Amino acid sequence: MEKLLLTLVTLVLVPSCSSQSSSCSNYPCPKYQVVETNEDFEERRYVDTDWITTKLSSRDSSAFMAASKTLRAFCNKQKEAGHEVLDGWPILITSTDGETPSTSLSWFLAPGSNPEITDTLVTPEHKAATTIYVRSYSGTPSRTTAEENKKILSEALTKAGKKFVSDIYIGAHYESFFALSHHNEVWMYSA
């Protein structure tokens, strides 16, 4: 049952501000340089990026669907108001553990986007250039596979002697649910 719900969540999470393809190659993505490649992860240096983000009320599938609906409605209102919103891939699901766990959903905004943020549920988020450790994996995205790959990434980073932020991880997803194959990533910030 959980797998079915997560599959449905993935379907709903796909941004709809513009039509999307199954590959980032045809749509804007955050730019980065590969610093180092290892067997279990890649070290990347990302440039400054902009996102629209909404917080989730919980970590269950209904909260993910509600967050996706919030971002979709925001994009539709922006278009109706004449504001250009150039979205791209990936979508990010950021989970923070610790004393006050939280989860948020973010959609990448391509350079040249000019949304007017008036919705209190949607916040603009500017991410400064940073180094991120990335583990790629395939298959239909789910919370379970993201957490499994986070564990593998954490162990690989520890073994490689890398310092990283352990209480925040990001699931990055690049394709529509209807894609024949899926490219997913787990991101962890360099400390």
From TrEMBL:
Leader peptide range in chain numbering: 1-19
Single Gene Ontology MF annotation: heme binding
Keyword terms of this UniProt record: Signal
Pfam family, one: SOUL
One cellular component term from this protein's GO annotations in UniProt: cytoplasm
InterPro entries: Reg_factor_effector_dom_sf, SOUL_heme-bd
Family in the record: Belongs to the HEBP family.
Entry protein name: Heme-binding protein soul2
